[in-house]
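User: Modeling request: complex.
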Amino acid sequence: MDTRREGEPAATTSRTAVERKSERELVVMRTINGPARIVFEAFTKPELFKRWWVPKSFGLTLLSCELDVRLGGTYRLVFSHNGSEPMAFFGRYIEVTPHSRLVWTNDEGDDGGAVTTVTFEDKAGKTLLVMHDLYPSKEALDAAIASGSTGGMSETLDQLDELVVTLGASFGRT
Amino acid sequence: MVQYTPARLDASFAALSDATRRGVLERLGRSDASITDLAEKFRMTLTGMKKHVGVLERAGLVTTEKVGRVRTCKLGTRRLEQETAWLERYHQVWDSRFDELDKVVEELKRKERIDGHKKRG
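Assistant: Request completed. Predicted assembly structure:
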């Protein structure tokens, strides 16, 4: 995925790695400059979580954020984008191991959604954060990619794709 | 990122302008198929189907691979490009998120240090 050209300053190198690990798995990794205990807190306290999960640059508004972080507890995030219909993302925590591991389901889809596993690994005052999404099938991950959904973020390219498809279809009818 | 060049769009539109070719794409969306399968399905000669597949292939909508005597067709590179573009955007989303997370973590660390001093002091 790294398309960085030679000669570009190292500062532009992203510290985040994203990889489609298999037909059903997507992995995001990053080292955070703080102990796992603190990073875990930022994932589990709503007032902290909502400060970073939806960066201002996305043009999204987080209307509500409820996290009941305990085994079997639920979460629910509601977003709106430029005054559009609100979108809800929700699921359940199926594993909560303080400071080291969080597992939640993603239940907003029609059929079985992905299961997200987050691991927090302490490394000399820093935390290696690994977010692992396991989709129920290859088709489910392909569909997520095809739909362009990145969890409710701006979808400019999709709109272009849609335009191309619409133009293609109307061309075909004439 | 995906490049939507005019030439590429022209080729795509031309490829999509034919009902058989749209049918072939739909069929390949379900599973890969050989030229022979496609010719049978669309009641067409092998030569006719090869031409249609050729148009789709030049538009980047289909790729073909010959294994032994069978040429298998599958949905093309655009799908891969779409995936690449999506991963790129997904990457940006996470990068921005983690940049914000860094700030929150820094703040919590600072707060902890101050609280620690207070307790000791």
